[in-house]
Amino acid sequence: MAVWWRDQNWLKSLGPYKVLPIFFLIGAGIELFMIKGTVFGTNFCKFILGVSRARELVSIHVSDQVALRKEAERRAERKLTEDIHIKQLREELGHRIKEKKGSKT
Q1: Half-sphere exposure of 17 (CA within 13 A, CB side)
Q2: Rounded distance, CA 1 to CA 61, Å?
Q3: Quick check: 11 and 5 in contact, CB under 8 A?
Q4: Distance CA 21, CA 10 (A)
Q5: Could you please report the per-residue DSSP string of 37-94?
Q6: Cβ neighbours of residue 14 under 8 Å, at least 6 residues apart?
Q7: Who has greater pLDDT, 61 or 32?
Q8: Which pLDDT does position 25 carry in this prediction?
Q9: 10 Å Cβ neighbour count for 58?
Q10: 62-101: per-residue pLDDT in tens?
C-alpha cells in the first residue's frame, strides 16, 4: 500500500502549482516567527503597534498644521477683502466730497 505523500501522482495532478504547498509552509513559518519570535527585545506585533501610534501622532500634527494654515489663509483673505472694501469706501467718499465742493462753487 502506497502512502499518499510518497505517491507522485498527486504532485503531477497539481501541474505548475506543485510548489504552492512549499510556499504555504514558508508563509506559515514567517507568520509564526512574526508572532512568537523576538528581535532586539520586540516582536512584529509590538513594532507594528508602535508604528501605527507614530503614524497617528504624525497625522494629528499634520492635520493641526493644515488647520492653522487654512485659518491663516482665511484671515489673510478677510483682511484683503476688508482692505478692498475700505479702499472702495474711501473712493466713494472722495467722489462725494468732490461733488459737494463742486456744487458749492
Answers
A1: 4
A2: 68
A3: no
A4: 12
A5: --BTTB-HHHHHHHHHHHHHHHHHHHHHHHHHHHHHHHHHHHHHHHHHHHHHHHHHHH
A6: 20
A7: 32
A8: 93
A9: 10
A10: 777 888 888 888 888 888 888 888 888 888 888 888 888 7
